[in-house]
Queue: 3 jobs
Job 1
Amino acid sequence: MRYARVRCGERVLGFLWASADGAAGYEPRNAAGAAAFEAGVPWLSRLRSARLRGVRAPEALEELLGAAAEGRGGGSVVEPVVYGAVSLDALEDLSGRS
């Protein structure tokens, strides 16, 4: 599984992720509060759009690296760096969810 951090300024709001099996999503960072959940809306929409165009999850994540969200994202951007995680559970631990 690969992921990239979603930021607003210096604040990490959450993580966009994609797995080799075709799954992709957004994991909000609990410490960022409601802003973390709102920031996920445009990114999830972009992931869905990529899927409808037939883009595989890992490539969709690559497309979003360095991108900025318009509208509800509150000025969030996806960092241009990709990290690895052992599993979605590990990423949830990183987000503070578990």
Note: The longest strand covers residues 11-18.
Job 2
Amino acid sequence: MRVEEAVAELARVAARDVGRGSEALAVPAAGGLLTAARSLAGRPAPDAAVLTGFFIPAAEPPAAETDGPIGAVQLAAALRALGGQVRLVTDAPCAPVVAAAIAAGAPGVPLEVAPLRGYDDWAAGVLPRYARLSHVIACERVGPGADGRPRNMRGDDIGGHTAPLERLFTAGPAFRVGIGDGGNELGMGRLPAELVERVVDRGAEIRCVVGCEALLVGGTSNWAAAALVGALALLRPEVTTLRDLLRPEWSAEVLSAIVERAGAVDGVRRRAQRTVDGLDWPAYAEPLTRIAELVAAA
């Protein structure tokens, strides 16, 4: 199988629909996975920031969800393996979960935490550095809708729990990669508005209007991030450690860590448990296993 064909199959596997229309949303995003992977793999040393963290205020207790941080840390570990520089970025409500994910999956990767209060002063200090980045990746990071407010899948305005990291995502000339699964994440503005409104429940209300250069759509965002690591492994086969990151056991360890150490919650079930977007481990692990198999067979 040619690399292009293998990457297209990775994208198809990652977009498996879990009830939110991801397969339909992935159609106009076709080619985004290969474009993103080539952009990252083609640089001798990418300098990237990965934004993640989606807070669930209605969970018991409130916390960041399990989808997003796992994929973000997987990407950070992959970029570090490629010889690049990378940092994770989130906001204060999501910081405990993202920090736990880093500790479990990519120890030593820097974490930058945006405050909810005093955000403008914080951003003024970091924006000069972000203007020099080669890539900015958003993995399951909520973005503003047409009314400027970030909303969850239920249409709730979560602006009071969310720092406006879209300002970093759009700052400077960095190549922007968006990873999402439901239409309300940074990068989803690349999709036709009518498609999101038709396919996604409350799509007109929650659709993020911020676009990107390359969009990856997954049934869960973690799957799409894993597909990107898989595509990097195909383009850079000499970096054998990339394949280690694709083991489902790697994801299982990070998932357990963020739930047990930081109380990460399933964004659908709104409880702290070892599931992602309402999927128990066997169902969640199936696409991860297939992604690893595709890369191993190439």
Note: The chain has one domain: 3-297.
Job 3
Amino acid sequence: MVFCTHFERTARELAKETNSPHLAAVSVSRSTFDRWAKGYWFGQPWPDTALVLERLFGVPSSDLFSAAPSVMQVRSSPHSRGDIRAALAITERWPTSRVFLSSSDEVADSWELAGRQVLDGTTAAIGFRAAAFREGAAHIEVADPALKQFLRPARRGMLVGVAEQGDETQLYVVDAANARRTLAVSSDGDTLALPAAHLLDDLTYGLLWSLVQLDDGLLADDLALAEEQQALDTYLSLPRSAPSRVALPDLTTAGAQWLGSAFCARHIVRRLEGVTAPPVFWTREQTGEQAAPWLWFRHKTDYLRALADEYTDAATPMVRVFCIPEGEVTRSSRYERILLLLAIALMELYGIRVDVLADPEYSEVDGFALVPRQRAAVANWVRTEAIWAADTVTQRPALRTYHEAFTEAQARSVATGPDPETRLRTLAGFLDVPWPWLVRRCRELSECGTASIVRPRSRHLSVNALDDVFHFLGDLAPGR
């Protein structure tokens, strides 16, 4: 297509002029261009795409797309005003979302999810249906044949119930596969009831946003990851290793994250063999996007459980340090900050005290497990050019540096308090996450379970950690 060719050429020229190599990879598919031309899109394009469009047309991107609200309501659209309001609400509330409404009942609407710094992005089908909220649930009429057709395909899809309550529109979400499964076994074949916990807000959006991207990436890499398992054993026998992403160019970001995380967990456990006193840990995650694997990767829960079992009778608790600069907190949307808080709550659940240092000068400290005055198992897989960077350090100057960073974090932690509830409540204040609201929502989700909203498809993912965290936070709540 001529437009797509001109767009890609302009992107390459702009990349050279601005010395921004990532711009050279920006492209626009024919289907996206068709949506733009027909008016079935919402909000502004991604920032890199906007830069190229501005160069190509010579006008601000906001002007190019300013007519969207009126264009969306074209006569041929099969969508109700409620559908359009819901799609607008999703796109406007979460900058990593875009919803495209199809001009035909036979073609599913689509929900594009984009990573902010790490994840690759993906697309799921989305279907909107009117819902009536009563008796603590949003009820969707399911007699419509078009809805049954939407739920039937094996691809990932999200069903969104649109409930009008006065002047407010509330959205309730469920995985299409869950809806299909529920209807198959339900005695009431006329309606689908979504519990109040399924409300689409910053908490549930963060769950969907992180899981769907990780899930799609791992499914795409399933065969490649299976073939790399033997290589992990070879690398574990080496004192240090840092395999380049170039060696596995076909891996998605999710696949590379899983491989790096799995290796680093095994590396640390092996290097801690024979250690009787709890080591101290330093981790490099600073955002919810980076921390989400703690909540979803099956091996991360196994790793935390193994450490808890090993040191459960120790005289002192395990401690893990995060360095989370205030600048990262400011740049992160609330749904990401919630993911980060949930990941830290998971560690407190397993008896690991978490300290959070806000000083950006410590941002580049290695991830490590330190046995004071003996050795440190260095394991980096977050914010590193390699798939992982692992080492075993015994030199005293390096051990002293790690210990000093740890001591500084304990002295200046923003997560203060004598018990998990106090520390997490204090940390919620630092992350600007409303604590009473979070506890209430976690309690609601603990009653229905994460899997009632969305289920992983990859064998490398699990909802168990999140369910445990929701129960944990719900039980911590004062005034229950």
Note: Confidence is low (pLDDT under 50) at residues 67-76.
